[in-house]
Design brief:
Number of helices: 11
Helix content: 40-55%
Radius of gyration: 18 Å
Strand content: 5-15%
Low-confidence stretches: 159-188
Number of strands: 6
Mean pLDDT: 80
Distance between the termini: 33 Å
Oligomer: single chain
Strand order of the largest sheet: 1-3-2
């Protein structure tokens, strides 16, 4: 059975354009004002792109008003290209589908020609959207320097965030305790796995090294964002 998982309905590049427009308009504006600033019309496509900008963590929406996030402010104030790429990689991993695809293929070669079929069969992406979502993933991974021209992946180093006690990407001890269960391996040591199940997501991950928390933290961040968006719309 296919696994339903959240994904953006717009590209990373255009999501940045949306956030930049909101920033240029003083950090907050209505969708109509944002669209006008970009020379666009309010449409289903534009609304999908606004939603994608939210999923990447660039903007939030409350009572019909768009706001840039602290994360985008930090991105906008990056000192150099290296810091900017690191932050864009963080944005990339906020997308549960992108995180899972990266985890699955990071040690091999991305099957570009059949990626749309994988999305349909294994991630329950609608057939009429699969090619577009595959393109978003490939382009986004390339833009944040994760996907090489030969379709192999760069390793993601999350160590720079590990010492930041206030980092939104860090998993708390209570979250770990409430979301995991330990198991005794054959060697007598503790092994852990984590399951996150809910609307649009069915995720399970065995934890074998510290880097596995990258994927888990990205999933949790997406869940937090969905809760916040739900609260803002109430």
């Amino acid at each position: 059975m296919a696994t339903q998982i959240d994904y953006p309905r717009g590209s990373l590049k255009k999501s940045l354009e949306i956030a930049k427009a909101v920033s240029e308009l003083g950090g907050s504006c209505t969708p109509a004002t944002c669209a006008d600033h970009l020379g666009k019309q309010i449409s289903g496509s534009f609304n999908a792109q606004v939603s994608a900008a939210g999923k990447f963590g660039f903007i939030t929406s409350k009572k019909g008003v768009l706001y840039i996030t602290d994360f985008f402010r930090k991105l906008n104030l990056a000192y150099d290209d290296s810091e900017r790429i690191e932050l864009l990689q963080d944005a990339f991993f906020k997308i549960p589908l992108f995180s899972q695809l990266y985890e699955r293929f990071k040690n091999g070669v991305l099957p570009k020609k059949m990626l749309d079929k994988i999305l349909i069969r294994e991630f329950d992406v609608p057939e009429n959207s699969a090619t577009r979502i595959a393109t978003y993933f490939i382009n986004s991974a390339s833009e944040v320097n994760l996907l090489n021209p030969d379709l192999t992946f760069q390793k993601y180093d999350d160590s720079s965030n590990g010492d930041d006690e206030n980092s939104q990407e860090s998993i708390t001890e209570e979250e770990l305790k409430s979301s995991t269960h330990d198991r005794k391996g054959k060697d007598g040591g503790n092994k852990f796995s984590i399951t996150i199940d809910g609307p649009g997501i069915n995720f399970r991950k065995d934890i074998t090294c510290i880097n596995d928390f990258l994927i888990i933290n990205a999933i949790l961040e997406s869940v937090k964002t969905n809760f916040k968006e739900s609260e803002d719309n109430e």
